[in-house]
Write a sequence for this structure.
């Protein structure tokens, strides 16, 4: 009888969780465009940085679990990052990390249940790539033997914003890996100081490494309600362009629970790989100041900002020039529609500001003046009684939906590129410095037939100018 050779798939599937909102990084990070889509520590966005760590030899194309409202942003940023072949799973609503990871495990298991998954958030910073890859190699070997590994970050300060892991006995046969003695919730300052001193406790990075088979087995054992609900949502999934939509009814039945609570703190197969990889969850402006490049006086400046006679400050401008004079240990962040000023020690509490803005029904709590769409973006420039002025940018080859409005007329002025406009039964090519009027109730569409972005100024006039005054007859991107 001939020998049979079993070839084990040695590649690792990166699973990137991109469902967070990052409210502590307001006013830059907001629900409609959260922190993972922003370049916070380099020229690339946090999502692109994360995807870039898991490309090349040894890695399969990533699986990204994202909010369905962000699907086109995710797809475009992955394309720019060169993440070829990415599979994007769309959550119909947020249900925390356990249901998201379970859905990703079902997807990976369809191809190979014994393939190793490296699960990570889309918005963490890591400065030592070589140390990361070394830790990942240790974790992957143990994962193939049925363990669920996490990375324990060597603490550098008595941080109260992170959970901790207590190191247990060495994991036999796997140098550098240890059993987990216990998980510790975010401690108070006194407890954090003692944990830092004893050398056996590590920050919980929230990254996990395990095979799809192991994850699904442990979820079915310790969180069967998660497994059942996500299985229903996964089995009823449907393709949508380049995305995979989980069934909303099934997914909504899943408990809102983290992977830590669902299985990591219950399983007998948990292990930790201590690692010094320059990790930060960049969960606050103080954390971003920590990893940012600073001047001789400890100041970090991003964007159009000027700083004088100040120490230990973080100053960032996404809009107007921002000047800081004679301050110490403050954070100043400016966007087009909001300004945050706080002491560095208070940045963990920025979410309180967001909560108050939400209670006051302020749009600045969740959305920017620039709103991204699959065809490009628009931003409001001026808004008054019965009129609004917007700048609209349409990507080459993209088109808006065929639509009409009941309460407003529109006047389009092209300032760069060319627009092919449908207006009822007519078609017009509108070039730079030309304009077209769209009367109330007409059925219209705009597309960019050119090779450069189309930029136009839209002047709306009417009794109601809300974004919900739209009837779509046809849409390339499947919106209703």
């Amino acid at each position: 009888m001939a020998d049979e050779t079993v070839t084990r798939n040695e590649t690792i599937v990166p699973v990137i969780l991109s469902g967070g909102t990052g409210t502590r990084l307001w006013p830059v990070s907001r629900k409609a465009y959260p922190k993972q889509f922003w370049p916070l520590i380099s020229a690339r966005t946090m999502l692109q940085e994360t995807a870039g760590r898991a490309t090349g030899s040894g890695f399969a194309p990533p699986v990204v679990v994202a909010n369905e409202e962000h699907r086109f942003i995710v797809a475009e940023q992955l394309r720019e990052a060169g993440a070829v072949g990415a599979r994007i799973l769309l959550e119909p609503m947020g249900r925390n990390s356990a249901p998201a990871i379970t859905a990703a495990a079902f997807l990976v298991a369809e191809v190979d249940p014994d393939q190793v998954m490296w699960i990570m958030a889309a918005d963490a910073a890591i400065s030592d790539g070589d140390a990361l890859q070394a830790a990942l190699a240790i974790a992957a070997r143990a994962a193939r033997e049925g363990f669920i590994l996490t990375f324990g970050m060597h603490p550098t300060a008595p941080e109260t914003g992170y959970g901790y892991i207590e190191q247990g006995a060495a994991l036999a046969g796997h140098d550098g890996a240890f059993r987990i003695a216990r998980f510790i919730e975010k401690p108070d300052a006194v407890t954090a100081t003692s944990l830092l001193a004893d050398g056996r406790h590590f920050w919980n990075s929230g990254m996990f490494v395990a095979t799809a088979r192991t994850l699904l087995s442990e979820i079915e054992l310790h969180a069967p309600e998660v497994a059942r609900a996500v299985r229903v949502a996964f089995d009823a999934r449907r393709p949508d362009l380049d995305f995979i939509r989980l069934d909303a009814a099934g997914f909504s039945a899943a408990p809102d629970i983290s992977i830590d609570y669902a299985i990591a703190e219950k399983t007998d197969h948990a292990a930790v790989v201590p690692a010094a990889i320059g990790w930060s969850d960049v969960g606050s402006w103080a954390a971003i100041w920590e990893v940012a490049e600073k001047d001789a006086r400890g100041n970090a400046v991003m964007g159009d900002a000027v700083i004088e006679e100040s120490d230990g400050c973080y100053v960032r401008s996404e809009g107007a020039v921002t000047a800081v004079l004679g301050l110490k240990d403050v954070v100043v962040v400016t966007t087009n529609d909001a300004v945050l000023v706080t002491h560095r020690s208070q940045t963990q509490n920025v979410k309180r500001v967001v909560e108050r803005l939400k209670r006051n029904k302020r749009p600045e709590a969740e959305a920017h003046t620039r709103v991204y769409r699959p065809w490009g973006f628009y931003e409001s420039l001026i808004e008054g009684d019965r009129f609004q002025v917007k700048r609209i940018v349409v990507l080459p080859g993209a088109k808006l939906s065929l639509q009409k409005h009941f309460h407003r007329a529109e006047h389009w002025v092209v300032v760069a590129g060319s627009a092919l406009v449908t207006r009822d039964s007519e078609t017009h090519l509108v070039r730079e410095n030309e304009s077209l009027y769209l009367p109330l109730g007409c059925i219209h569409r705009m597309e960019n037939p050119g090779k450069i972005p189309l930029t136009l100024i839209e002047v709306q006039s009417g009794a109601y100018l809300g974004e919900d005054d739209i009837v779509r007859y046809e849409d390339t991107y499947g919106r209703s």
Summary: The longest strand covers residues 314-325. Residues 1-7 have pLDDT under 50 and may be disordered. Residues 97-111 form the longest helix (15 residues).
